[in-house]
Amino acid sequence: MTDQSAKKFDSSRAAEYESQSRIALAGYEACHELAACMLAAALGTGGTRRILVVGVGGTAQEVVAVSRLEPTWRFIGVDPSEPMLALAGDRLKAQGLNDRAELHLGTLDTLAGGEAFDAAMMLGVLHHLPGNDAKSGILKAIANRIAPGAPLILAGNRYAYASKPLLLAAWGERWRMHGATSEQVKAKLGKILQGADPPHSQEAVFDLLDSAGFERAESFFSSLFWGAWIAWRKPL
Predict the structure, then answer these.
(1) pTM check: above 0.85
(2) Mean pLDDT by 10-residue block, N- to C-terminus, for the chain (236 residues)?
(3) Segments forming the whole domain that contains residue 192
């Protein structure tokens, strides 16, 4: 996530993120659990793996979910939003995981260099980056940080929202199901149409991954606009 994109995640949005993210994404817990399962299946269990988590702010659910399977793995979490990163720190402390994860405030390019990571995760970030150049840039930055052959777990919205009116209407109904009024639903629909720029198809996601240095992309979760994939860093 860029500094500009992080401005959307101010203190007011951070305060509601824990509950609202679970409404906005039907299957929030399932997606993160399956992401953890895919990562463990890809890397094998045990050992001292180092996982890069891009956009860890908010719930730090990636760290929480993976830690349930792999208690010896360690994490570096990066996020440019200070309020969101503070929430992640609080969540990790409450879960007894703060000694397993190092949190870094800033964008990925401000993270110090070092040994390549064994894997990376980036959930809920790509559609907040405007334009293909920014999307490609962050994926290339991740590729440069992980070892050849290492897996990336990627998740986020795909499709231009207005191009899928039935999915958009169903998304609004989910908010109504959780107590939103008709006016609140209308406001949320207007906000999503203006506030994000998702890739326009799964094929567009795969093209971005390929051009950034990843191969063998495979889908493992879908929920309305949301998709989740695993891909592998190409050999050098």
Answers:
(1) yes
(2) 55 69 94 98 96 95 97 97 93 95 95 94 96 97 98 97 95 96 94 89 98 98 98 95
(3) 165-197
> Which of 129, 155, 142 is CA-nearest to residue 32?
155
d(CA 142, CA 55): 12
DSSP classification of residue 127: G
CATH number, domain with residue 61:
3.40.50.150
Question: CA-CA distance, 61 to 18, in Å (whole number)?
Answer: 10
Strand partners, 104: 78
The verdict on 73 and 127 lying in the same domain is: yes
Q: In this structure, are 125 and 153 located in the same domain?
A: yes
Quickly list DSSP for 33-90: HHHHHHHHHHH-SSS--EEEEET-TTT-HHHHHHHHH-TT-EEEEEES-HHHHHHHHH
Same domain for 61 and 175:
no
